[in-house]
Protein 1
Amino acid sequence: MVELKTDGWLTTAEAKALAGYGPAYLRRLAKRGDVEARKVGRDWLVWRESLLAYKDRMDSLGRAKHNPWRGDLVEHGRGRPGRAGG
């Protein structure tokens, strides 16, 4: 098999070791566009800087990351509109 990975791209196993997110969650983040990723064959490669930026953002939100009324979720059609939220 030809290795297409270049610097900056992580396999899901490497991304899990770095950020602690499992492969299924990483695929979900990639499909939603929350992290930059590419599918190469049947494998996903995650852009390291994008993953770290997402993790930093989630860490900074703390418990608020679970708030379904969070503005950024509502903007992307994934939250609950109609109530103020962080």
Protein 2
Amino acid sequence: MDRRKFVKFAAAGAISLAFGRALVFENAHAAEHFIKKIVKSNEEWKKMLNDEQYDVLRCEGTERPFSSPLNSEKRAGTFVCAGCGLELFTSKTKYDSGTGWPSFYQAIEGHVETKVDNKLGMQRTEYHCTRCGGHQGHVFEDGPKPTGLRYCNNGVALKFVPEKE
């Protein structure tokens, strides 16, 4: 682990040991931000998700652009993983990217994980829900300020929870 990553973990109050085999929490604040993983069989996921959600979340599929009602969602609230309910984005970070998929310039810290995707003959960064591993979409470096990122999300991989008034 390079020094910058170690300092980031240490500053958060958590130290990761070799290859993530163990986490030692030095304070309660770090422990409460640890997200316990959800592991289910394919059969269990198929029972709880519809066909399109299963294809996107578990098989890394992509929904048709401009097909999600979440594209036009403008209320205050939170966008959560359709697989496990983990909060992934706030409505404050949503914007219209013109791509046909719900887009956000920032994920909730620690709630998504990334990996390299070379499936279409080009290198992209794919992101998944930290808790259940459900595929959400891809992140690109062509978004607005302040981050310059565009989290391009499949609408079927999300559920919207409106803010209580």
